[in-house]
Amino acid sequence: MDSAPETPLPPGLRALQRLVTALIVVMIGGFLVLIGALVMRLNADGPPLPDLLPVPDGTEPTAFTQGGDWLAVVVRDEDGAERILIYDRLTARLRQEVAIAPAE
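The structure corresponding to this sequence follows.
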């Protein structure tokens, strides 16, 4: 049997083949980084609650956020009720307490 010799690819097509291969490698690497970041984010604990904020006894902090001159902590009581405690950023004194009503 007579096999035809393979003709080499033209230089432009060879460069395109290398570019496509590089794109595949970069996309796979980016996908792996994205999956890794997602896994780390989902396994992470919540934000650390600043030690200087006095949360009431019998409550568990569930969320923390901050604004310009205030800090807010969402706490859950032992009975499951949730409240938002708003503290002054500089003095760490309780400014306001907001009860979160359950959805109807």
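The CA atoms of residues 61 and 75 lie 4 Å apart.
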